[in-house]
Model the fold of this input.
Amino acid sequence: MSLRALLPASCAVVEHAGRWPDAPLHPDEARALGPVAEARRAEFAAGRGCARAALAALGRPAAPIGRGDDRAPRWPAGVVGSITHCAGYVAAAVAATATARSLGIDAEPDQPLPADVLATVASATERRWLAAAPPGPVCWDRLLFSAKESVYKAWRPLAGTWLGFEDVELTIDPATASFAAAIAAPGPFRRVVGRFAVTATHVLTAVHVAGG
Ligand SMILES: CC(C)(COP(=O)(O)OP(=O)(O)OC[C@H]1O[C@@H](n2cnc3c(N)ncnc32)[C@H](O)[C@@H]1OP(=O)(O)O)[C@@H](O)C(=O)NCCC(=O)NCCS
Done:
């Protein structure tokens, strides 16, 4: 199962498992990134490489993908999208604004969250669910974290505002490999659903906010 399967066919998805492919940075992208360590440049470039390939798959002309003050990618007019990278995985997903209002994707290693991180990202209700969760093919706490990251990436470009972990109550449905997020903060949506997949090494989550 891959990220491709988590999003509608109207989205273009480019993903790589394993070593990140080398990708050249456009000079405008390099300027937007600024001076950083080589590891950071490599992940940024790998994400931009996927994003450019996804734009091409959507039939859009090649263009540098900028970076906003909030660190979100700046997509060409008429396009929404999202980027994720972590050790052993990188992906980008894009869609025309005629079919999607926003997208959020996230990948995490399928490993337990450190206890102090879990205390920060999960509510008491979510922690109760995690404590009773069925033994499954995935670290549910890591999945919860990834799902909230995907929700944030879809939220931020639409809302223009911060969304804290405490603002989102997540309900995971293992049977349908989906999740629903109830959002307490004022903004563009109060509820959004997403889907998840588990590979041999990673947890993948995706949120597609439909509309146009
Ligand atoms: C921004 C954030 C979501 C990135 O997630 P991450 O798991 O650390 O890292 P990922 O590799 O999956 O994603 C990084 C990419 O997200 C994208 N991104 C960064 N800031 C973003 C934002 N404000 N909005 C949308 N996308 C953003 C970028 O493309 C970035 O990669 P790049 O800088 O190389 O272009 C995370 O660092 C963060 O700030 N989280 C706190 C807010 C939050 O998650 N709240 C949860 C509420 S439910």
Q: What stands out?
A: The first strand starts at residue 12 and ends at 17. Residues 97 and 167 are 26 Å apart (CA to CA). The chain is about 30% helix and 30% strand. Strands lie at 12-17, 66-67, 73-74, 79-86, 89-96, 100-109, 168-173, 178-183, 191-198, 202-210.
